[in-house]
Amino acid sequence: MSQDHSGISFFAVGTGRSGTTMFRKLLTMHSEIFMPRETHWIPIMHDYFGLREAPREELIRIMEETYMAKGKSALLRIAKHVKTDYDRFLSEFRKSLPEKDNLTIREFMDCFYSYVAGTQGASICGDKTPDYAQCMPMLQSIWPEARFLHIYRDGRDVALSMSQVLSFRVQVAWQTNHWWSVAYRKTYERELKKAQGDLPIESFYELWRSRHLRAMDDRGRLKDGTYLGFRYEELLKDPHGVLGKVGGFLELPDTDAWVKQAQEMIRQDNVNKNADNPDYRLLTEKYSDDLASMGFTP
User: Fold this and answer.
1) Contact status, residue 18 vs residue 130, Cβ threshold 8 Å
2) Is it the case that residue 216 has pLDDT exceeding 50?
3) Is the pLDDT score of 85 beyond 60?
4) What is the 3 state secondary structure string of the chain?
5) Cβ-count burial of 109 within 10 angstroms (0-12 exposed, 13-18 middle, 19+ buried)?
6) Which residues are 118's β-sheet partners?
7) What is the pLDDT of residues 146-182, one digit of tens each?
8) What is the Cα–Cα distance from 223 to 140, expressed in whole angstroms?
């Protein structure tokens, strides 16, 4: 991977609750990598403007008005992540933009990624927004050279975890496959009451299934050499092997030293911990054939 110290280098994606947060922490143990908190706003920008130039203030507005389930903007979370006052963060980012009224999404976001990586002294920026597994071909239409790291996990474990997280409960209540469809201007608030009520565990399995199958289908539409997928369970079982593949795929400098350090942070006992959960057993009984068809052992 060419390290030109600008823009985005790779996207780390998944279904959500599939290990991407742990994976981000492992990746950012490399001295050259920084990955901010989840963005979510690129598909919203693309829905409005596609690949054409758009008013820079409109792009900033979309970025500022993309929210997370607990009411904080995605941008505020990123500013806190880099330990910068929000107003200062936004002001400094504005200064990094080209001095013209209209920008493409790529121009705008390359400045954003370069700016946030620069605040941490990193030369490589990655984006860990799991939902972007649902729009990889679109992202590659913006960044043809971008690479995708896709981590996926047994749907029973994902469903149990999703059922405890408000953002996924909102998605089930809305019957939508991705957060960005309800994140803009807090659209999700209309179904908060339903999201906080009783929701069957099967609905979270179906959310996982839909998201997983979409990503697995779209991987075949990406350019050769730009996709690497692996199981969460595989990462726990063989961290040295998987992280070595990741380092090679991203062409990271000092891969061996990073792998040696990162693998020490992995808890290998975090597999099959839900096997005795009644909902896990219910999903196993109901979806055993479905799981097997996707390569997961019932």
Assistant:
1) yes
2) yes
3) yes
4) CCCCCCCCCEEEECCCCCCHHHHHHHHCCCCCEECCCCCCCHHHHHHHHCCCCEEHHHHHHHHHCEECCCCCEHHHHHHHHCCCCHHHHHHHHHHHCCCCCEECHHHHHHHHHHHHHHHCCCCEEEEECHHHHHHHHHHHHHCCCCEEEEEECCHHHHHHHHCCCHHHHHHHHHCCCCCHHHHECCHHHHHHHHHCCCCCHHHHHHHHHHHHHHHHHHHHHCCCCCEEEEEHHHHHHCHHHHHHHHHHHHCCCCHHHHHHHHHHHCCCCCCCCCCCCHHHHHHHHHHHHHHHHCCCCC
5) buried
6) none
7) 999 999 999 999 999 999 999 999 999 999 999 999 9
8) 8
Place of tokens 């052992």: 297
Tokens 């050769």, located at residue: 224
Class of domain 10-293: alpha beta
